[in-house]
């Protein structure tokens, strides 16, 4: 049993933390005075490894999560936070039933995560697998992520993120955004997701921006060699994202999405609209490429379809569903 801890630099490694066995978090969220359970800050050359497990014991805390209706909610603690961590590696760790996100990276540079196993039930609220913001040169590989929210989410300032050999599901898939909520958001650029599988997720590859929004840019993404296994929205750009009830459907996002390639994406969509590119009416998406898309829908009422609005780009190679750009 471990209470909330912070390991704070500045210090320069190499420093290795070995986690073996199972660490359990306190069940009562009121015992956490911080936004995390285990946190590392301002460390260069950190290694966290060891094959052990982090048990966030979230199930008793999830009912306290009212963030979907209360904008001033107190967030539950993240299982493991990395803030201002550079030239570091995290590998061979398991995390289950986090209270909030499992892993959160903020202001990190050159960090590799591999052989991570993340598990939480599909209904657990806000349990992102790995949440990344304001971080550069991050690689995530050879990992299994099944959770209640995004498997990997990348928000403002995520740059040069490389994701390979990750299997995701259940969960909300790989997600960029939501973008455009605050002033002067850092751009999101250079995201590659390759050789990954999504199974029974709500989304596959998603980019979402608020409407209305403030201006920013999301560009230079490659999504390649991805298998969709019963995914509700396999390919989705949603620039009209507004999950709350009082949304202005005529408001536009000002986030410019540019240079996005979806290549060799195949498998089964669990909804009829397998490709949904809903771009902004004020700054249309530019240079969107769909190459060799083969997504089937078997639910009846006809084959899979695609929907596009305000998209500039091109489709080529296999086009199932038929392209709409
Ligand atoms: C992360 O992986 C890349 C490519 O495998 C490697 O070049 C880089 O040095 C690694 N970084 C760290 C901190 O281990
Ligand atoms: C793709 O991922 C699978 C496991 O999901 C792995 O066995 C295979 O080596 C990967 N292929 C490449 C080219 O990385
Ligand atoms: C978009 O791609 C074009 C060429 O394909 C390149 O010239 C341009 O710099 C890219 N822009 C961004 C913002 O990535």
From TrEMBL:
Residue spans crossing the bilayer: none
Superkingdom: Eukaryota
GO molecular function annotation: polygalacturonase activity
GO term, biological process aspect, one: carbohydrate metabolic process
Compartments where found: Secreted, Cell wall
UniProt KW keywords: Cell wall, Cell wall biogenesis/degradation, Glycosidase, Hydrolase, Secreted
Keyword flag Hydrolase: yes
The keyword Hydrolase is assigned to this record: yes
Family classification: Belongs to the glycosyl hydrolase 28 family.
Protein name: Exopolygalacturonase
Native organism: Nyssa sinensis
């Amino acid at each position: 049993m471990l209470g909330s801890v912070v390991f704070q630099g500045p210090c320069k490694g190499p420093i290795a933390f070995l986690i073996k066995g199972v660490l359990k978090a306190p069940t009562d969220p009121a015992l956490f005075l911080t936004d995390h359970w285990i946190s590392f800050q301002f460390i260069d050359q950190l290694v966290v490894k060891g094959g052990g497990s982090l048990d966030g014991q979230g199930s008793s805390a999830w009912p306290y999560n009212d963030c979907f209706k209360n904008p001033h909610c107190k967030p539950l603690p993240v299982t493991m936070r990395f803030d201002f961590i550079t030239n570091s590696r995290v590998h061979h760790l398991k995390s289950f039933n986090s209270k909030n996100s499992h892993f959160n990276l903020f202001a990190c540079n050159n960090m590799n995560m591999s052989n991570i196993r993340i598990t939480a039930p599909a209904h657990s609220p806000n349990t992102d697998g790995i949440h990344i913001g304001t971080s550069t040169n991050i690689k995530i590989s050879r990992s299994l992520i099944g959770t209640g929210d995004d498997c990997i989410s990348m928000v403002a300032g995520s740059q040069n993120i490389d994701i390979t050999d990750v299997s995701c599901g259940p969960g909300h898939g790989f997600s960029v955004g939501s973008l455009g909520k605050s002033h002067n958001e850092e751009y999101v650029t250079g995201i590659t997701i390759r050789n990954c599988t999504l199974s029974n997720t709500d989304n596959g590859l998603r980019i979402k921006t608020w409407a209305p929004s403030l201006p920013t840019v999301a560009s230079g993404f490659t999504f390649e060699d991805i298998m969709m296994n019963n995914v509700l929205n396999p390919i989705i750009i949603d620039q009209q994202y507004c999950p709350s009830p009082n949304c202005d459907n005529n408001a536009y996002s000002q986030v410019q999405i540019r240079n996005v390639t979806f290549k060799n994406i195949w498998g089964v969509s669990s909804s009829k609209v397998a490709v949904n590119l809903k771009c902004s009416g004020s700054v249309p998406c530019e240079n969107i490429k769909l190459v060799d898309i083969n997504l089937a829908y078997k639910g009846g009422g006809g084959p899979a379809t695609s929907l596009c609005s305000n998209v500039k780009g091109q489709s080529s190679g296999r086009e199932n569903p038929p392209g709409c750009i």
